[in-house]
Amino acid sequence: MQHEKIITAREAAALVGNGQTVAISGGGYRVVAESVIEALADRFDEERGPRDLTVIAIAMVERSRAGKGGRGTGLNRLAKAGLMKRVFVSSFARSNERELNAAVIANQIAAYNFPMGTIVQWLRATAAGRPGYATPVGIGTYVDPRSEGARTNASAASSMSPVTR
Description:
The structure is a single chain. The chain has helices spanning about 10-15, 35-45, 100-105, 115-125, and strands spanning about 20-25, 55, 65, 70, 85-90, 110-115. The chain is α/β, with parallel strands linked by helices. The protein has a domain at about 10-115: Glutaconate Coenzyme A-transferase (3-Layer(aba) Sandwich), CATH 3.40.1080. Strand 3 and strand 4 (about 70) form a beta hairpin.
């Protein structure tokens, strides 16, 4: 049996179940699967699922230029109560009014802010089947698990970066 290798954004969104992890790549708003993000948000609006996703994004992805625009695009589409449980990202939008930032400030989503290179290497290790990724990056900063552990709000109750030896 031959498997189809190309699927629509809607078909991709249909594969995501409750509580699963979704990784989103791209450089800023470039090379991001905006149609898949939109399809996930649309599916949530229509079906009230998937719910409680963990979203990992290399950078805050929204379509904006010079800090203008971005509303209703990229990760902002996923900032709906119940859709995301937590988000790991290396940057947030410049405006607190953007949907994702507002949800983080309101503690509706547990938010973690890791360095971009760390997220890239973490995803790479996961894709290669490795059990994790250890790095000294962030030691002595807010990323250090003995400090804030990359937590950005009160909903991010536990550190997601344990100390290893």
